[in-house]
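quick one
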Amino acid sequence: MTQIIDGKALAGAVRAEVAEAVREIKAQGGEVRFAAVLVGDDPASQIYVRNKQRACEQAGIIFELHTLPATCQFVELTDLVRQLSADKKINGVLLQLPVPYEVVGDRLNEVLNLIDPCKDVDGLTVANMGKLVDGTAGLCACTAQGVLHAIHSVCPDVSGKNIVVIGRSRIVGRPTSLLLSNHHATVTVCHRLTKDLALYTPTADIIVVAAGCPGLLTADMVKAGAIVIDVGINRLADGRLVGDVDFEKVACKAAAITPVPGGIGPLTIAFLLKNIVRAYRLQHGL
Ligand code: NAD
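structure w/ nicotinamide-adenine-dinucleotide:
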């Protein structure tokens, strides 16, 4: 019988832990404060930021939203990020992606690297990426942690497992593959230019799909009994929200699978909250 991994329930437990940690910090006279920067008026980004705000407030974390218009200058954005990063009262800083190309052009990395690595709750600075490569503890991308947590809920030890990660973006695929490799899995990374995905996926014990292509992973590409983690979030023309996996058919073959919605999405938010508290602790030498 296929296990549907309940990301909402798993996230609920992580969020309860975070809320308890924030209560302890407050009891000792501290406060945890998080700043999100939103550039432009992309409706999806506005929804993501609102969800983060709600989650922070429920956990007792103070949320600040800093908005800039899509017409702002590059220097206005860098000034804002620098100022938030230097503000001692702020424990976590996040730049909501994507940032309009008209504002950052090819210089997004420059902006991200202005964030103090101890406040970089998305784990996107070169310093935190480097720590992930190095296998030392930094702030690691929230979705990657959510993926590992979902896998651990059905497979507590990934060492020696064959894992195929489809997607190698800086925010999802790449940190996920590094984190899984740090946990001693044998990781194969596939991407847009991989010639034949179906050559790799049937040998995998675990498949993580983060491509943004509805229906990319079909049942014939999956070994019976595999664990399938669907990170994709795609809005179809009829308004439905789906992942990258042909869920109904793959679910019949997999041992365990994450749904969309209700899988990795809620876990990503939960691990953002966890990173904010971790950032607070790093800044206070705890
Ligand atoms: P991206 O566009 O930056 O990267 C997509 C990656 O997938 C690239 O490496 C690309 O080479 C690869 N890819 C694309 N088409 C492919 C194909 N046909 N075959 C093989 N590889 C292919 O996207 P992203 O930011 O990494 O996001 C990926 C998906 O995950 C999107 O649907 C996004 O909405 C979703 N997402 C979900 C969460 C969550 O919390 N669940 C968080 C972030 C992103």
